[in-house]
Specification:
This protein has helices at residues 7-26, 30-38, 42-53, 120-134, and strands at residues 62-71, 79-86, 91-100, 104-113. The chain is of the alpha+beta class. Helix 1 runs parallel beside helix 4 (120-134).
Length: 146
């Protein structure tokens, strides 16, 4: 995506929202993720992403985007990049999630607002609201009766 003055702010909003999913994916062995990418086992990767996302987001919000890459050098650290399609209500985001041993990062490749405002600040605020609305709230009372 061509970077604009709002790109960094939007990537920060997305990074904060998606960080628990990235943490779940980082629990997987890097060699397993690399082998799934190398042998194009995209259905398996989609299942892993869905399993990590279902703990934090409403169904269908975070999806594997049918692609990825990895870096693995002799004696060097492994890094895995996974394409994601993130669809909170009213927005579609295509992003690349980079996973490394001690950190993760996200880069937005494309973002589309269904009803984009002429004001980019309004679109950025909509992104934050939509991602919050797509998350499961941890402050809701449980339905269990004792």
């Amino acid at each position: 995506m061509k970077k604009c003055p709002y790109s960094a702010q939007r990537e920060q909003i997305l990074a904060e929202a998606i960080s628990p999913v990235a943490s779940e994916l980082r629990l997987l062995d890097a060699a397993d993720l690399i082998s799934l990418l190398r042998y194009e086992c995209y259905g398996n990767l989609a299942d892993l992403v869905a399993s990590a996302a279902e703990l934090y987001f409403l169904p269908g919000t975070v999806n594997f985007g049918l692609g990825g890459d990895y870096t693995l050098e002799w004696g060097g650290p492994a890094e895995v990049s996974i394409d994601l399609e993130i669809k909170p209500q009213g927005i579609t985001i295509y992003a690349k999630l980079a996973l490394a041993e001690h950190h993760a990062g996200i880069e937005i490749n494309h973002i589309a607002f269904d009803n984009a405002s002429a004001d980019p600040d309004d679109n950025t605020a909509l992104l934050a609201r939509s991602l919050r609305a797509a998350r499961y709230s941890t402050n809701q009372p449980t339905a269990l009766a004792g």
